[in-house]
Amino acid sequence: MINKVVKNVEEALIGVENGMTFMLGGFGLCGIPENCISELVNLGVTELTCISNNAGVDDFGLGLLLQKRQIKKMISSYVGENDEFERQMLSGELEVDLIPQGTLAERCRATGAGIPAFYTPAGYGTEVAEGKETRNFNGKMYVLEHAFDAQFAFVKAWKGDTAGNLIFKGTARNFNPMMAMAGKITVVEVEELVEVGELDPNQIHIPGIFVQRIFQGTAYEKRIEQRTVTSKS
Amino acid sequence: MALTKQQIAQRIAKELQDKWYVNLGIGIPTLVANYIPNGIDVEFQSENGLLGMGPFPIEGTEDADLINAGKQTVTILDGGSLFDSAMSFAMIRGQHVQLTVLGAMEVAQNGDIANWKIPGRMVKGMGGAMDLVASAENIIVAMMHTNKRGESKLLKQCSLPLTGVGCVKKVVTNLAVLEIKNNAFYLLERAPGVSVEEIQEATEGILISEGEIPEMKL
């Protein structure tokens, strides 16, 4: 088996430079690569383009990179939970490309699957479709959307083995699998790194072929954004 | 009396049909799950990657890895399933989800909907709404009839950036149930005690009311 293990987050992020384009998994704060984000803050790389469904909250997730003004451009679908983001965007400090969530997911998938572009109905007739090719298929209008080009994808999985095979948990899966497929260099942090043979091949969500570097993550906070419960009684 | 948000959800729940997969948006739509009619099996799809979404977890059992599209902690019912975002939107665009219920800032009489951006003031993003409205066979908009300034949200033409074009066919507000067709709002039902005149007053778009308009039954 080809061993993908790096010893820590510092080694995992070797090659990261100013001005690069990254994909970062997660939906809200669920399934975000916490260790990689912390290290990007430590490295102080700037002028980044980040492709991520959301932009974290003010003091966690990608919000940490926004605070330090490390991000030049965000490509996201929903950014409603981050006041600093909204401030930087409305003042023009931050360039923002808001795109439909399904289009974002499919563009990531297309990137990894070798598909340069595809047609989707989402956004037809709205400002999202401005300047894009449109086409009628069977009486309905569609918009041409393109794959991305990302130097690194930062992915969070639940379990992974040394060959880079991944299993996700709950709704922390979200964008992580497609981004894992899409990165030129895919860096995966896992809650539990195991030896090959320990994961059931039938249960693998993402095969190790898509993964270049994997490491055991540490100190997961796994913050809950909206704690909603029903009382015990 | 105009309906409360809970009652709007209660009225929309009567539109649910047996064996439907349903996507509920954030806000009033989420409340629809509390009023599923007896004898009907529906499954809720959450676009962040969950089918068979259950109620909020019992206090102390909440899991950071199990949330809905509103980032709220939820549970998964027996028979539920988990998947990635690309597969989730394959379900949506591929029309495997029968009903979408979502909120709106504006709806126009031609079925256009706006709910993601107020230029220069509020930019939260469209999330999954553009994919949902571009694909769903049945879309119900759940919203208040007027905005906080008392202005109608049912318009001749949307003034805000659109989320989708010509896609909304039904609107349930605190005042009325309306169907959109022939470039007009057709009044189907009134909230209990609310007159056709009051609904007309609160509707900027063309309102057509034919014959006796019944009160909603909740």
**Arithmetic mean pLDDT of chain B:** 96
Number of E strands of chain B: 15
The portion of residues forming beta strands of chain A comes to: 25-35%
**Which structural category do the helix and sheet elements of chain B fall into?**
alpha/beta
Question: Please, what is the oligomeric state?
Answer: heterodimer
N-to-C SSE series of chain B?
A: HEHEEEHEEEEEHEEEEEHE
Distance between the termini of chain A: 52 Å
* N-C termini distance of chain B: 13 Å
Kindly state the mean pLDDT of chain A as a whole number? 96
User: Shape of chain B from CA axes?
Assistant: globular
- Most extensive interface, residues per chain? A-B, 60 and 56 residues
User: Count of DSSP helices of chain A?
Assistant: 6
Which outline of chain A best applies?
Answer: globular
Order of helices and strands of chain A: HEHEHEHEHEEEEEHEE
Would you kindly provide a brief summary of this structure?
With 233 residues, chain A is an alpha/beta fold. Chain A has helices at 9-12, 34-43, 63-67, 83-90, 101-113, 176-182, and strands at 21-24, 48-51, 71-76, 95-98, 117-120, 134-137, 140-146, 152-161, 166-167, 185-194, 213-216.
Description:
The complex is a heterodimer of chains A (233) and B (218). In chain A, strand 1, helix 2 and strand 2 form a beta-alpha-beta unit. Chain A has 6 helices and 11 strands. With 233 residues, chain A is α/β, with parallel strands linked by helices. The termini of chain A are far apart. In chain A, the strands form 2 sheets. In chain A, strands 1, 2, 3, 4, 8, 9, 10 and 11 form an 8-stranded mixed beta sheet that branches. A 3-stranded antiparallel beta sheet of chain A has the order 5-7-6. Chain B is an alpha/beta fold and 218 residues long. Chain B is built from 5 helices and 15 strands. Chain B has a 10-stranded mixed beta sheet. At the A-B interface, helix 4, helix 5 and helix 6 of A face helix 3, strand 9 and helix 4 of B.
